[in-house]
Amino acid sequence: MIGINFKRTLSFIFILAFLCPLTSCFDIIDEITLNADGSGEITLTANLSKSKTKLASIMLLDTVNGYKVPAREDINHALNKAVTFLQNTEGISNVSKKVDFDNYIFSLSCHFRSVNNIDDILQEVTKNLKVKPLLFSYNFDATKKVFSKNYSYDTEVKTEYEKLKEDDKKVFDEASYTSIFRFEHEITASSNAKAKISKSKRAVMMRASALDVINGNINLTNKIQLK
């Protein structure tokens, strides 16, 4: 889920637009479970639990470092808006959200009819957020049993990052992005050497630091061959 501005694009989960500027330690996780027919489920999670003590104190304030601190009602409203958007998107069903203010973990989940629906969702969201179209796309060839995640690095990501104040840059120091794919069939090959195949051979995980993504030090493209 990487776009022209790493911080703004990650606000696909909406909650990050509120809280990421207030903490330097967060994890973005996207999980896709793919069925043999190309349908499946996607879950997007913002995990800020490593900073939960700091965030609990921050939530009692009005502003921090020039950023408005949201009320719980604001966060719930943003997530409800995301749920409503997904519920009205063709090919999407069973939309749900999870909100954990004790650990500051927030997630959105939904089922999709085909892998193409994922691209449709992400493109529509970036259009509504008025950011550049995403540099991720997904494809599934059911005949060849090949699932692909395509990624193109844009140097403007780093350009936007360099424009930030030094204190704001620290937001990304310990931040990470994790992608997890699960399949019905066993995995026979994964093109990205940094991706790890599970012992069951039915899942692939890839983790990258936010700074590696921003600086173009990692390629997130992966082609997964299924048995």
UniProtKB/TrEMBL annotation:
<protein>
    <submittedName>
        <fullName>Uncharacterized protein</fullName>
    </submittedName>
</protein>
